[in-house]
Amino acid sequence: MTESNRPAPRKDQEEFAEEQASLLKITFGPLIWATHFVVCYGLVAVTCAKGWDFFLIRIVLLVLSVGALAGVGLIGRTAWRQWNARETGDFVNRGGHAEDRHHFLGHAAFLLAIISFIGVIFVTLPLLMIGGCR
Amino acid sequence: MKLHDAGLPAPEGPWPPTDAMLAEPVDPELARQQAERLRAAWKTPEGWRYITAVNNTEVGKWYCMTALVFMLLAGVMALIIRLQLAVPENDLIPADRFNQLFTMHGSAMMFLFAVPMFEAVSILLLPGMLGARDMPFPRLSAFGYWCFLIGGIFVIGSILFDAAPRAGWFMYPPLATEDEGPGSDIWLLGLSFIEVASIAAAVELIVGTLKCRPPGMRVNLMPLYAWYVLVVGGMILFAFPPLIAGDFLFELERSFDWPFFDPTRGGDPMLWQHLFWIFGHPEVYIIFLPSIAIAAMIVPTVARRPIFGYSWIVLSAVGTGFLSFGLWVHHMFTTGLPSISLGFFSAASEAVVIPTGIQIFAFLATLMVGRVKMTLPMLWISGALAIFTMGGLTGVMLALAPFDFQAHDTYFVVAHLHYTLFGGMVFPVIAGVYYFFPFIQKKLMSERLGKWAFWLTFCGFNLTFLPMHLTGLWGMPRRVYTYPSGLGWDTLNLISTTGAFAIAAGFAVFVWDLIRPKHRQPQIPRNPWDAGTLEWCHDVPEEAWGVRSIPHITTRYPLWSQPDLVKRIDAGRYYLPDAEEGLRETLVTSVIDARPVQIQRVTGPAWITMWAAGFTGGAFIFPTFHWYPPAIACAVLAICCIIGWLWTATARPPEQDSKDAGLGLRLPTYAAGPSSVGWWAMWITMLGDATAFASLVFGFFFYWTASPDFPPDGAAHADAARVGLAAAALSLSWAATVAARSLNRAGHVGAARAGLVLAPLLGAGGAALLVASVLALEPTSHVYPAILWALAVWIAVHVGAGVIMQLYCLAGSIFGKMTPRHDADIWNVSLFWHFVALSALVACAVMGLAPEAL
Questions:
Q1: Which CATH architecture has domain B698-853?
Q2: Closest partner CB to A30 (pick from B216, B306, B319)
Q3: What predicted TM-score, i.e. pTM, was given to this entire model?
Q4: Using a CB-CB distance cutoff of 8 angstroms, which residues of chain A are in contact with residue B314?
Q5: DSSP 3-state assignment of B15?
Q6: pLDDT (tens digit, 9 = 90+) per residue, B614-664?
């Protein structure tokens, strides 16, 4: 429960400064999921209602899905580096220093990127498995 | 003192405090005097003035008890429903009464119990967990509470006059729009009023979590409850506004016959279903997450170790928050949408299981690796996990569209939703009552009665709802007031009714234990559960100041890991140990790392919040009976009350620019712009407001998608020239406001005042032009002119509010409330105008350009 055995923190490095951090950053992964979801649903709804070319829209949306996955993957990779647990050996980040907060936000963003990645795959599945508007 | 761009002088003095500084003892005589001054400043009003209290501990208690009473009333309605269904072809109550009962049961449980309970519990507990003296806007909490009380009594009281809403708790048109009598109006206006209270609470809780944490409590150290509050507050901001927009359209149809949901004139009932469920599904998680947050506080205490997987729980809270917005159509699987659309929502509904499951596994893991001490709160949490898991599993089944086609609108759904809500909300909240009761009342509840209550409720619950799965699968539709014999439903229904009375007995025991007099009980220990979080440093016997001095926090479980903490809090060693001016103050810290940045004056007891809530109530309630003149009078008086309240109690220039906060730290006493709590509150409110506006614009494009002729051929459009002029005038009004802010800050007070004279004139002119542009259109004839009117009215009302704010700043400048240095008001008003200008431009684009483009 105490933090006695941990190595001395690398204090006050610029990358740990409060100004560099933002709570919004951890939501970037889920935001990509949300955007992908809304675009898929909205575009398909309009396509079906207005009788646009479904095949074309489907290709467009599949390309978009690959893009979304790549985006989430990139965010996940950055977040993984920010967490940096392999180097620090600290997996729970419950210390009281700026560095701990920095790693924690990385970890949270990384986990959210994973869930967003899975979410995007889930939402892409209907595009692959269902062929038309009926 | 140097002034930052944001208008905040820099703090001066050592930060963070060193161990030596903290170890230095406080002079006991000084500490005693400080405590006395603090006690006087935070004294709760006595006698009949007690109701003017605004302290979070009082308002939170009233809020909880009111929600509990509404819940019990809704529970009695459920018992009557169950009695009617106990045997086939029963004639205990007529069909119409039955419709009112199930509508009111659902509406009251959702809007008068489940959501307000989150706000109530959070207002009550959050400041304690954060070591804050109070919420940043105590009077706003009180205002929200009084709105809730008035609206709640109005809505639930209607059942006594046989005038209750009766179209089901989701009020589907055309049934609800065509319904005779005031029932639907009561539902709409009463609940819109309560939604205002919810959004007020969300603003309060988000700002409280972000800006009022104790010094040093970085985001990785926040109690998990605070994380959930943050997520749920954010969800309220995006979930409630679509319903408010829906209510706005619905009431325009009910009162003025504007055909938004009438297909014969181009409207579409599906739009209501979308707006309702964009609200309705996230709402389920708005109810569930804060309750499970209580479990996240109880589980580590019971396991006597820190939570296992803190980041994973943060992930699950944030992840669930997002995913829950992609589920709404699973309530609409049988409305004939394209199957690929259903596929998206089905997929997202399955995906949300992952974060939800993660948090439950994190709890189980904590219990597995800890040394569990089985307490009463833990008993209720265990029951919650068992029941919720079952509800979750039937949820996975219902999220599959083909299964839902079969089970839709049957008792299977009734069973599913009660399993999720009892397991996800009722049981954890009761666990929380047992757990936090010593914190709230400084007394303990009975172990023996608690066990009785648990086993009665738990067994009764399963007896009631487990058979309902089968009743539903055997074809019994929900909401029928009776059924014929011989379909195999008779015995199952009788069992359900028996179980319902067992639940009622369990609740009776619980409520008795809650309210029975306990003054003969000896004084309780300060931390009866040996918990590690900050709220358990509370004072026993009770003190109204919240915390004697605001501690420096460096760990997640400070009572376990910071050994001298409580002693130093009590000695007044930490921050803000004094109230020299005899005024209430709390500490404002930075968002990420909780550096102390400001001492914030908070407001004290007042009658004005009650007047404001009463008149706001009149403005919502009179239209139910189509009494418009008194409604308008009430609205005007409510605005006057609110202006008076703000003028006298907020953002007043302080007597000195900075003051000693303790431990050698000198902090500014006034902040403007992004570093002030008021600016954050405005920003968060406007985010919700923008969501409501976006829902209206969504409505416009929904009509375009859903119908082949929108706008209809040959329809009259909004006058494009007037729309263009309105856009220009409103943009200029915005520019004048922003310019006035800069000029005022630069010391050109005269020029700033000129800007503040020009801005409202331009604003009023712009609003008039916008309304004039649709004046020739007949909104009752077709949905196209109706939605143009709705957009124009929406913008005009917002500009009206904006004009009042500009004039408020002008008056502030003239009467010395607003100076170049003390300019928080105009910062907040320009922020409001950023949003107004943006939405006005979008509205003008839709009204003026869309007819050409579509």
A1: Up-down Bundle (1.20)
A2: B319
A3: 0.94
A4: 108, 111
A5: coil
A6: 999 999 999 999 899 999 999 999 999 999 999 999 888 888 888 999 999
